[in-house]
């Protein structure tokens, strides 16, 4: 008997990396010193069923969709790149949020989460 699940049975994830500087606006309105990170982004998506060839979506298509967002940030200063110029503070949380809200996934594929590492030790998770 199939268990009642509120999660889709199939998930895939892709990881993309980019290098970028940022500087957070702090609680007192000051800016932290500009510094760089080797950022790591993991996007996890799901589907209720596999497509005609047995995939949720092609890994390379998911990689391409992520790259459309992060490649323009590569070797740049995030504070000079939309949406971090005015709308969002360039925190790891907001990097994950912006990627999550911007991805245009194929029909039948649902975003589960975006996790962003700014260092090997620290990551932020945007999860739906
Ligand atoms: N929840 C979050 N906390 C912090 C973020 C963030 O995006 N989300 N970002 C920062 C700083 O931008 C920075 O990355 C951390 O600076 P620091 O504490 O100096 O750590 P670094 O790895 O850059 O340098 P160290 O070698 O560890 O000193 C802070 N918090
Ligand atoms: Zn930082």
Can you describe this structure?
- The chain is α+β, with helices and mostly antiparallel strands and 128 residues long.
- The protein has a single domain (10-127), classed as 6-pyruvoyl tetrahydropterin synthase/QueD (Tetrahydropterin Synthase, Chain A, 2-Layer Sandwich).
- The chain has two helices and five strands, in the order ββαβαββ.
- It has helices at residues 59-70, 92-102; strands at 10-22, 35-47, 76-77, 110-117, 123-127.
- Strands 3-1-2-4-5 form a five-stranded mixed beta sheet.
- The longest helix has 12 residues, at 59-70.
- The model has no long low-confidence stretch (mean pLDDT 95).
- Ligand LPXRUNBV is lined by residues 24, 32, 35, 91-93, 118-119, 124.
Keywords:
alpha+beta; Tetrahydropterin Synthase, Chain A; 5-stranded mixed β-sheet; 32% strand; binds the ligand Nc1nc2c(c(=O)[nH]1)N=C([C@H](O)[C@H](O)COP(=O)(O)OP(=O)(O)OP(=O)(O)O)CN2; 6-carboxytetrahydropterin synthase activity; metal-binding; 6-carboxy-5,6,7,8-tetrahydropterin synthase
Quick recap of the structure?
The chain is of the alpha+beta class and 128 residues long.
SSE map:
Layout: E1 10-22, E2 35-47, H1 59-70, E3 76-77, H2 92-102, E4 110-117, E5 123-127
Parallel strand pairs: 1-3
Antiparallel strand pairs: 1-2, 2-4, 4-5
Overall number of domains: 1
Backbone structural class: alpha+beta
Poorly predicted tracts of residues: none
The assigned CATH architecture is 2-Layer Sandwich
What profile does the largest beta sheet have? 5 strands, mixed
The run of helices and strands is EEHEHEE
Taking all Cα atoms into account, the compactness measure Rg is 16 Å
Provide the list of bound ligands, each named once.
Answer: the ligand Nc1nc2c(c(=O)[nH]1)N=C([C@H](O)[C@H](O)COP(=O)(O)OP(=O)(O)OP(=O)(O)O)CN2, zinc ion
Mean pLDDT: 95
Identify the CATH class. Alpha Beta
- Total strand segments: 5
What is the CATH topology?
Answer: Tetrahydropterin Synthase, Chain A
Distance between the termini: 28 Å
DSSP summary: helix tally? 2
């Amino acid at each position: 008997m199939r268990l009642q699940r509120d999660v889709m049975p199939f998930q895939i994830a892709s990881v993309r990396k980019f290098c970028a500087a940022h500087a957070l606006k702090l609680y007192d309105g000051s800016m932290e010193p500009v510094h760089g990170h080797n950022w790591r982004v993991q996007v996890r998506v799901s589907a209720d069923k596999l497509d005609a060839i047995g995939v949720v979506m092609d890994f390379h298509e998911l990689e391409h969709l992520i790259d459309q967002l992060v490649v323009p940030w590569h070797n740049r200063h995030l504070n000079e790149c939309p949406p971090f110029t005015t709308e969002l503070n360039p925190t790891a949380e907001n990097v994950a949020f912006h990627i999550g809200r911007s991805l245009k996934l194929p029909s039948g594929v649902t975003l589960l989460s975006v996790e962003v590492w700014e260092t090997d030790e620290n990551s932020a998770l945007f999860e739906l």
